[in-house]
Amino acid sequence: GLGEHRAKAERMYSLMDGFLKNDPISLQKDILHHVEYTVARSRFSFDDFEAYQALAHTVRDRLIERWHDTHIYFKRTKPKRLYFLSLEFLMGRSLSNSVINLGIEDQCAEALNQLGFEFEVVAEQEGDAALGNGGLARLSACQMDSLATLDYPAWGYGLRYEYGLFRQIIVDGFQHEKPDYWLNFGNPWEIERIHVTYEVKFYGTVEEVEMNGEKQKVWIPGETVEAVAYDNPIPGYGTRNTINLRLWAAKPSSKFDLEAYNTGDYINSVVNRQKAETISNVLYPDDRSHQGKELRLKQQYFFVSASLQDIMRRFKEEHTNFDELPEKVALHLNDTHPSLSIAEVMRMLVDEEHLGWHKAWDIVCKIFSFTTHTMVTDGEKIPVDLLESLLPRHLEILYEINFNFMEELKKRIGLDYSRLALLSIVEEGAMKNIRMANLAIVCSHTVNGVSKLHLEKLKTKTFKEFYGLYPEKFQCKTNGVTQRRWIVVSNPGLRDLISKWLGTEAWIRDADLLSGLRDHLDNADFHLEWKMVKKVNKMRLAEYIEAMSGVKVSLDAMFDVQVKRIHEYKRQLLNIFGIIHRYNCLKNMDKDSRRKVVPRVCIIGGKAAPGYEIAKKIIKLCHAVAEKINNDTDIGDLLKVVFIPDYNVSVAELVIPGADLSQHLSTAGNEASGTGNMKFLMNGCLLLATADGSTVEIIEEIGEDNLFLFGAKVHEVEKRRQKRLSNLAPLQPAKIPLHFARVLRMVRDGYFGHKDYFKSLCETVEFGFGNDYYLLTSDFGSYLEAQAAADKAFVNQDKWTRMSILSVAGSGRFSSDRTIQDYAESTWKINPCRCPL
Ligand code: C3B
Predict the structure, then answer these.
(1) Helix, strand, coil: what percent of the chain each, to 5?
(2) According to the model, what pLDDT value does residue 761 have?
(3) d(C-alpha 179, C-alpha 667), whole Å
(4) 20 to 30 A from 339, CA-CA: which of 50, 405, 478, 531?
(5) Which atom of ligand 1 is nearest to the CA of 675?
(6) How much is the pLDDT for 265?
């Protein structure tokens, strides 16, 4: 009975000595304990890395306590839960983030100190968890932090790739990719759940059987793989709540393959089993096009099947009736990548739970929501023949969903076959495909864009037809980033300064409070301290640059940064052309004019997908230009160009706080949102940007005067593209701005060497060839003007500091807390569920 239960609990607590304590002495004891018994080193001799391991385990123990309490509390209160399904999470490092969110940073620092270690040095030992490509993946990580902090009953699901995003090394200015076998040094943050496993099936056939007098489809799979759960605790800030990110790894099925063993081919049967493990081995390093690859499809289904079995098991433990599913479960599709979930839930409800198609469909339409992250129309597709062999039953289900959808459509819009063809989930043609976005839109109750501008394009272009059918589904949830990582972890100087002048740390949970900084806009002491913080961050960055590239940079120079994945649409090429132009100007200047020039350090970083040739050429060009300019003694400190290799989350934490200016150059209408801009904004770095994605909303918040805006607006882009094409027939070199033509010619003619190699890169912006699809030619003039305005503003440090303060003060709206609260209230309909202390 109850009394007995309580007695047992009390006995257990007395044995456990209550909860772990967080004073420096207790932490020290725990660290030493882990040095000796977990790391198995002598407590009298361990190095920084071993200290990191021991501290990580010490922190992990505390995370586990909270994780347990949170889950017991969720189980007891049975709230509606959110399951966030994403194939990518870019978590970066965990130590500093965990320690800060647990509120034990000072105690940990002191504990280490007394042992002869320094927290910052120890924290540097940690490698990044890079289970994602770029913005989409880092967004998932920021959103997990917000879900935990805001006490939402949520779980994240993903894949535990053994090879994360490749590491970029630069040899002779060329990108090379090295595998990121990140688990090599162990991962103290994850908890392996060897007993939480599910079988995931592939291939085989579909058969029809009679059951209770009714015909029923059954899938007889041909291959079975096991999914094992690895849990990663995600602590909230200022709350005991610690939620879970469950990542799946593939293991050979424990089912005995009798036939293979009996035929005597023991070695081969073991080798075959081993192949199963490759499913979750490696993250696809291309952040937008992985079409028609069987392994990718296998990864997607492996992820979907394991996650949904886990979710349904939990639901069935707590509830008996599937009618309750929509009230208790929200499934969120992070882009189209997990969209097979729709077919899988239908299969589970129809084939396994025998609910009948209509009832199952009714439920499915109430539980899914979907966020798309791209402006591109031609989204993810799965070739039907691939599906047919890998997931035959799912293909049937997808056909049936589409058949019903088409029938309903015909009733609504008649036999308008061209419209029907556009809307269809199945793309007909020589190669039949399943259009994942169409599937996600038809079956989700909400379709979210990631900025206002993005949503507008979804409604009027990308998914115009769908918007006509389901206007109420389309919503805007402008992205955000977490101030916990992007200020508190990465910029401790700024954190202290903000808290001091606001008189509170409450902004760490409520970013809107940052607007209070406006009250001190004209305070001279505040300005002084503000500039000091930036200076210290610039010093840190300068040291890193020198260590990485050997280039010495002046702290008086403007640190100008463009870091993000390399893509033509993000126009790193525009930046490089601008740098070449600046170089030309400097070369032509007399001594007197040179004295007035603002020195610049141009910093570029980012990875190119391994198969993306043009992006790789951009990286090489950056190095070629850097080599020329940095070695020109005539230029000195006036201009330096630096490529930062292997840009990732931890590099971002170093680079962003040290930037004066940051560039966001996408041709308007191409960047769905952008989140880097928000991180720079939060760190008091001014933006030089086009009116694209979320930048439009940043302008709404801080005003046009507080950043450097340039380039064609969205509505002008289409017109210019048309014009550009009509100019084609007789080439009109006169229409190409002189500066642009000169810079292009220098690259073309081999001024930076590698003439042949850069030819195809130049052609992307040349008429008669690539036709400058991204409009570098026509935006170049306005880009240079914006750059000149930035130079001018930098000379007036008072003005610059005001702009910088106003940037941070206006960044509150771009906290992922705001995004997540909006999702929770209007899309997922979930409530906070705060675990009591
Ligand atoms: C990115 C988009 O390119 C960004 O504009 C956006 O801010 C982020 O997603 C987050 O919404 N994105 C990406 O990183 N990978 C994709 N495959 C598609 C979009």
Answers:
(1) 55, 15, 30
(2) 98
(3) 32
(4) 478
(5) 7
(6) 80
> What pLDDT, on a 0 to 100 scale, did the predictor assign at position 256?
55
Pocket test for ligand 1, best of 374, 448, 452, 457 (most atoms within 8 A of CB): 374
How high is the pLDDT of residue 1? Answer: 62
Distances in Å between the Cα of 668 and the Cα atoms of 129, 453, 696, 728, 731 are: 32, 10, 10, 22, 25
**DSSP code of residue 815:** B
Q: Give the rounded distance of the alpha carbon of 57 from its chain centre.
A: 26
| Residue 138 Cα: closest atom of ligand 1 | 10
Q: What is the spatial distance between Cα 185 and Cα 586, in angstroms, rounded to a whole number?
A: 48
Checking ipTM against 0.90, whether it exceeds it is yes
CA of 501 to the centre of ligand 1 (A): 35
Which residues have CB under 8 Å from 366's CB, separation 6+?
325, 326, 445
Distance 381 CA to ligand 1 centre (A): 18
Atom number, ligand 1, closest to the C-alpha of residue 694: 7
Write out residues in the chain with pLDDT < 50, as ranges.
Answer: 729-731
The count of C-alpha atoms lying within 13 angstroms of the C-alpha of 277, restricted to the half-sphere facing its C-beta, is 10
- How far apart, in whole angstroms, are the C-alpha atoms of residue 85 and residue 370? 10
Running DSSP on this structure, what letter comes out for residue 93?
-
- Tell me, in angstroms, the distance from the centre of ligand 1 to residue 672's CA: 7
Q: In this structure, what is the dihedral angle of CA atoms 292, 298, 302, 303, given to the nearest 10 degrees?
A: -30
- Burial-class residue 465 by CB neighbours within 10 Å (0-12, 13-18, 19+): middle
CA dist 456 and 306 (Å) reads 35
Which residue of 84, 88, 136 sits with most ligand 1 atoms within 8 Å of its CB, as the best mutation to test the pocket? Answer: 136
Question: What's the pLDDT at 252?
Answer: 85
Name the residue with the closest Cα to ligand 1, atom 7.
674
pLDDT at residue 730, as a whole number: 44
pTM (whole model) above 0.95: yes
Q: In what helix (H) or strand (E) does residue 38 lie, and over which residues does it extend?
A: none
Beta strands in 625-740 (DSSP E): 639-644, 661-664, 686-690, 708-710
Among all residues, which ones are annotated catalytic? 373, 564-565, 570, 675, 679
Helix (H, G, I), strand (E, B), or coil: what is residue 288?
coil
Q: How far apart are the first and last CA of the chain?
A: 26
Residue 95 dihedral angles phi and psi, to the nearest 5°: -60, -60
Structural domains of the chain, with CATH: 17-77+94-126 (no CATH), 82-87+128-477 (3.40.50.2000), 483-776 (3.40.50.2000)
Tell which atom from ligand 1 comes closest to the C-alpha of 693.
5
Closest protein CA for atom 4 of ligand 1 = 674
Q: Identify the residues whose C-beta falls under 6 Å from ligand 1.
A: 133-136, 139, 287-288, 373-374, 450, 479, 671-675, 693
- Per residue in 1-12, pLDDT (tens digit) is 668 877 877 776
Amino acid at 190: E
Q: Shortest CA distance to 493 belongs to which of 437, 538, 553? A: 538
